[in-house]
Amino acid sequence: MRAIAVSEYGATPSLMDLDRPEPGPGEILVKLVAAGVNPYDWKVAAGAMKDVVQARFPLILGQDGAGVVEEVGEGVDRYRTGDQVYGSFGAVPRGLGSYAEYAVVAADGPVATMPQKMVYSQAAAVPTASMTAYNLVERTGVEEGRTVLVCGATGGVGQAVVQLAALKGARVIATAGPDMTDRMLRLGADETVDHRAGDLFESVTEAHPDGLDIVIDMVDDERRLDELAGAVRKGGIVASTIGQANTAGLKKRGIRAVNFVNKASRELLETLAELIDRGKLTVHIDREVDLADAPAALAEIKRGGARGKLVIRL
Ligand SMILES: NC(=O)c1ccc[n+]([C@@H]2O[C@H](COP(=O)([O-])OP(=O)(O)OC[C@H]3O[C@@H](n4cnc5c(N)ncnc54)[C@H](OP(=O)(O)O)[C@@H]3O)[C@@H](O)[C@H]2O)c1
């Protein structure tokens, strides 16, 4: 099967012809139609999991995907051949991922029936970003009456956080330049702040002198996040998706801090599918590329500037 993989950590991802995986007991084999791209994918290729698990090479990249169940392993009764599913297919120790024509996943793992209202390319763009957003909103206690600043709101995770926080009834402030202001407001943000037009901390404290309740941050380093935390009232919470929250330091300042790590699950994908089918959550596909063009597209998203999700057609 055709797949985008790396021969070792740090190698340039390339198109390879690799063996189709076999579903073991309790697993399903999925013929993928589309794969969703996340920053995590290039981080894995660069070696982010090096000290965590032993990888198998060539290592196929990608977590997110959507497709059709091709084969079910022994003991699987949740799915049948032909079912349309979406989920998280990355398995570094087995060298498997979603940038491939086929992937395997445990039937009770992070895979679920696709949202009925989505086509494969849309469903493939949902799992990592929207599961992360959902868990972040829950973890930080977003609710009606709270004011939430979303930093990195224009990206995959951010656009879902904005929608889910607005759905909870919170007041949502989204970072966005002029090109993304309208979309952020349509997604449910109450206001936007241009992080490139001036000092973000100053803009936010000026507009919210009583302080913010929550900062959900996908982009800032520890120094910037420490500064932004000055805009949060005592007892408030700051969450970083990139491990940049200085938990001990912020605790001393009366602010709870979380270095958030996402947990994927079937149940969560089912919840998201329901929200999507009820019209409460959308995903914006910025661009679709063919498998052979995926390495170049991956290199581009590494440079930043995401305005939605990148999807690979398989
Ligand atoms: N911890 C976890 O479990 C977990 C889960 C999912 C994702 N993540 C991580 O979270 C990060 C975001 O993921 P993603 O999928 O949303 O990425 P993405 O789609 O690439 O989006 C990032 C967005 O942030 C914007 N941005 C960059 N610098 C900014 C700044 N200083 N202020 C405000 N906005 C800024 C970017 O636009 P511009 O470049 O044009 O500003 C882009 O729109 C990634 O590093 C990812 O690996 C972690």
Radius of gyration, in angstroms, nearest whole number:
20 Å
List segments where confidence is low: pLDDT < 50 over at least 5 consecutive residues: none
> How many strands, which pairing sense, and closed or not: the largest β-sheet?
7 strands, mixed
Bound molecules: NADP nicotinamide-adenine-dinucleotide phosphate
CATH class designation of the largest domain: Alpha Beta
Q: What would you call the structural class?
A: alpha/beta
- Sequence of secondary-structure elements: EEEHEEEEEHHEHEHEHEHEHEHEHE
* DSSP strand content: 25-35%
- 3D shape: globular
State the distance separating the first and last CA atoms: 11 Å
Strand elements, count: 16
> What would CATH call the architecture of the largest domain?
Alpha-Beta Complex
Helix content: 25-40%
Can you tell me the number of structural domains? Answer: 2
| Overall pLDDT score | 97
Number of H/I helices: 10
Which assembly state applies to the chains in this document? single chain
CATH homolog superfamily of the largest domain: Medium-chain alcohol dehydrogenases, catalytic domain
What name does CATH use for the topology of the largest domain?
Quinone Oxidoreductase, Chain A, domain 1
